[in-house]
Design a protein that fits this description.
2 copies of one chain form a homodimer. The first copy, chain A, is mainly α. The first copy, chain A, has 2 domains: 58 residues, Multidrug-efflux Transporter Regulator, Chain: A, Domain 2; 69 residues, no CATH class. Chain A is 54% helix and 5% strand. Chain A has 6 helices and 3 strands. The first copy, chain A, has a 3-stranded antiparallel sheet with strand order 1-3-2. The longest helix of chain A is centred in the last third of the chain and has 32 residues. The termini of chain A are far apart. Chains A and B meet through α3, α4, α5 and α6 of A and α3, α4, α5 and α6 of B. Chain A binds a DNA duplex through α2.
DNA sequence: GGTAAGCCTGTACCTGAGTACCGGATGCAA
DNA sequence: TTGCATCCGGTACTCAGGTACAGGCTTACC
């Protein structure tokens, strides 16, 4: 027995072996047991944890957020309402929806630019027919929510 | 006369003065004339160029891409079809559309997770009812285009 | 001509998520 | 027991798009 070596875990989860140490530093993976010589020996469930991390990242969570999510799961869930995955997923969903709306505005602008046949940005900027909103263009995420939280 | 000083240009365009030097290094802004003492003196149109840069960034172009776009505009347009703003805007539009589709998949997954009431990622990963696709989750942008270019 | 604000160059730092390299130690199989 | 793959730690680097700081010079106004 003993456990899986870092290379095995990395291969099984499809990540770079260095990433395991990185996640350990970041608090996403618990420090595993060691062999007598100091090599890491992981329990099999580490592979699951890694898959979970990758899935959460895919859903838009940062590593810090993933670390909190994992922690929230470990410390008995349901303590206070913000801590759970459900609430955070809801918040992240809102974020993603805002981002989608933002990109849709951008797509609309690009479509208009293509249609209008703009072919030189600097020249265009002075023309009245150019659909690109040079002056009023907002930084990403600046709109749609009334107050900055 | 002489031109605008860097602080004036930066203020007029709403950017950090350091950013002007940064853009100059990156090839987005031409090297301006200097005063006898070595201070930069910008023509008024630089403010327009900065606004254009910011607008293009907002539309999803990287600074390298913006530099190319500006260059393409300067070197007489219409040479070959890829070079123009129109073609690039079309390509960028496709990129943005892919990103939107990707985020919509993510939003759908988050909605499903909220609805299913998942509350602990690691536990969830072993449950059959959990809607989060841990195993099959793809890296961003991996789908929808058949071959990796 | 004095003084303060502004500008100069060069270098270092920031975020986020890793990846790469180094010299040395360990694990495992033949 | 030898040899080689793997792993160790620590450090440095990557990408993108800036931002900050230090130490010194210039400009502008009174």
């Amino acid at each position: 027995m003993s456990g899986l070596r870092s290379g095995q875990v990395a291969a099984a989860a499809g990540v770079n072996p260095q990433t395991l140490r990185y996640y350990e530093r970041r608090g996403l993976l618990a420090e595993p047991d060691r062999s007598l010589g100091g090599h890491r020996l992981y329990p099999a469930e580490t592979v699951t944890v890694l898959r979970v991390i990758k899935a959460a990242q895919r859903l838009g969570f940062t590593l810090d957020e993933v670390a909190e999510l994992l922690d929230a799961g470990r410390h008995r869930h349901g303590r206070h309402p913000d801590a759970g995955l459900r609430a955070r997923a809801q918040a992240k969903l809102t974020e993603v929806e805002v981002k989608i709306a933002d990109l849709q505005v951008i797509a609309g602008t690009l479509r208009a630019a293509v249609k209008a046949g703009c072919d030189d940005l600097v020249e265009c900027a002075d023309q009245p027919y150019c659909p690109i909103p040079f002056a009023t263009i907002a930084p990403p995420g600046a709109c749609s929510t009334g107050s900055p939280a």
